[in-house]
Design a protein that fits this description.
With about 290 residues, this protein is an alpha/beta fold. It is built from eleven helices and eight strands. Helix 6 packs parallel to helix 7.
Length: about 290
């Protein structure tokens, strides 16, 4: 069951995986779930170890898709291709599909990081090196830094143009951040990319003003007074040198761009979830940076 849609997932499950060692336990579990499977029995019964492995392997597969498309986005950025066109070209292939094929700033939460790590360790305990899963972890760790690197590079280049030393520092800069939870429809900030991104922005000397529709209390516990939290997304933009979009909340998808320009010191957007159209943003007068976008 996914965070943010657990009730819906329970009422309309894709499948029910039952791991049991006795026929009686299997029958009881089958009877319990029968009312939720009236349109077709999608119950899979197997031994306990295989059931456990099914759960870990499923989450690891989804994490792998995320890391894969993020790596493709970084390659696109290097060679001048557009990852949005590429992912659509991939997704219409029925063997691949569109699910979890959206580039961004990496996965977080309580399941994907934990389950990938658990599989890597389980494999190691069995004398096997899980090379693909270790690469999935490494790509995801790097992806959480991509937006930070873009922000530092942008302001370092501006400093160099003004004749100042090319110093990777954000001292004196205010960065607004939209989105703190690891995904929409939850306040969960465990392993959230926002934590890594904000921590590194602070380390580089930036002041951070942030907003999230539901994760404000969690953010206060994590960052204390090191960042400014605003109850309104637009207020976070007041006097900001740039905006970093980190979580793809629906509330952020269609903002008033002209109002944003009036509030911001400079109209610069670092879109960590590719929720905006680069061409339209540039027409609105913004300098736009996406993930693997042209």
């Amino acid at each position: 069951m996914k965070e943010g849609s657990a009730i819906e997932d329970f009422m309309k499950p894709d499948r029910i995986v039952i791991g049991a060692d006795s026929n009686r336990a299997m029958q009881i579990m089958h009877d319990v779930y029968a009312p939720f499977l009236r349109k077709g029995d999608r119950t899979l019964v197997m031994d306990v170890r295989s059931a456990e492995m099914t759960k870990y392997a499923s989450n690891a597969m989804l994490a792998t898709k995320i890391s894969f498309i993020n790596e493709m986005a970084n390659i696109c950025a290097s060679m001048g291709a557009d990852i949005d066109s590429v992912r659509r070209g991939m997704g219409y292939d029925k063997r691949i599909g569109f699910e979890f094929l959206f580039p961004g700033v990496g996965y977080g939460g309580s399941c994907f990081p934990k389950d990938v790590k658990a599989l890597v360790q389980t494999a190691k305990d069995c004398g096997f090196e899980a090379k693909v899963l270790k690469a999935v972890e490494a790509v995801n760790d790097h992806q959480k830094m991509v937006l930070v690197e873009k922000i530092i590079s942008h302001f370092s280049a501006k400093a160099a143009k003004k004749g100042r030393a090319n110093n990777p520092s954000l001292a004196g800069r205010t960065i607004a951040v939209w989105g703190l939870s690891f995904k929409p429809r939850t306040d969960d900030m465990r392993e959230a990319p926002a934590v890594v991104i904000i921590s590194n922005l602070l380390r580089a000397g930036a002041e951070v003003k942030a907003h999230d529709p539901v994760a404000m209390e969690q953010a206060r516990k994590i960052f204390k007074t090191r960042i400014t939290l605003t109850d309104d997304g637009y207020e976070a933009l007041r006097g900001a040198d740039a905006l970093a979009v980190v979580t793809e909340w629906n509330e952020f998808r269609a903002p008033d761009f002209q109002k944003m320009k009036r509030l911001m010191k400079k109209p610069v957007i670092f879109d960590g979830r590719n929720i905006y159209n680069p061409t339209e943003l540039r027409k609105e007068g913004f300098l736009y940076y996406g993930i693997g976008r042209r």
